[in-house]
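Can anyone check this?
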Amino acid sequence: MKNKVLMSWSSGKDSAWALYQLQQNNEVDVVGLFCTVNKEFDRVAMHGVRLELLQKQAKSVGLPLEIIEIPNPCSNAEYEKIMGEFVVGAKNNDIKYFAFGDLFLEDIRNYREEKLKGSGIKALFPIWGMPTEKLAGEMIGAGLRTIITCIDPCKVPEEYAGREFNQDFLMSLPENIDPCGEHGEFHSFVFDGPMFKEKIAISVGEIVNRDGFVFADILPA
């Protein structure tokens, strides 16, 4: 029997690509997605993606989606309590692994592993250690299509919000910016790719500044 896996789903390219790698792994069975959503705004935390679009992604992937609501603001203690309860429920459903789309930040990986320690659930990192310049090109070459939903204006010019993540985007990035935005330079929303059964029709709405970040409001077409 294959080990059951839940995919930590951010709505962005890295979690989508990690899912794609797991879909090709005959040793595991991805049985669902989970995502934290800001309860006040009904949007994906940090990415700013609308709940409706998140649900469209799950439908296209063909997996059930579990929404984990977090308050706004949310203290670290509150967040860990909410996630701890989710872990217990997942364990009771015979989940063996949580999979994450992290690439190379050791502190984040260590945090995830530490919080799962002793729970009976282990962390999987399907795309860990892949060189990000090569990975970005591989994603685009395989047909992954994604829109930049949030940027840190201290690292990336504001006009990058709402742009598609493609070769032109990569070529135009400042030299010190990671091609996959692993340092929080930008976040994204995937609307098409090899992990999807059908493309999600979208349009780019208002660009807004909020809490020190620039968000592009992605709308269902």
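Reply from J.R.: I decoded it. The first strand starts at residue 3 and ends at 8.
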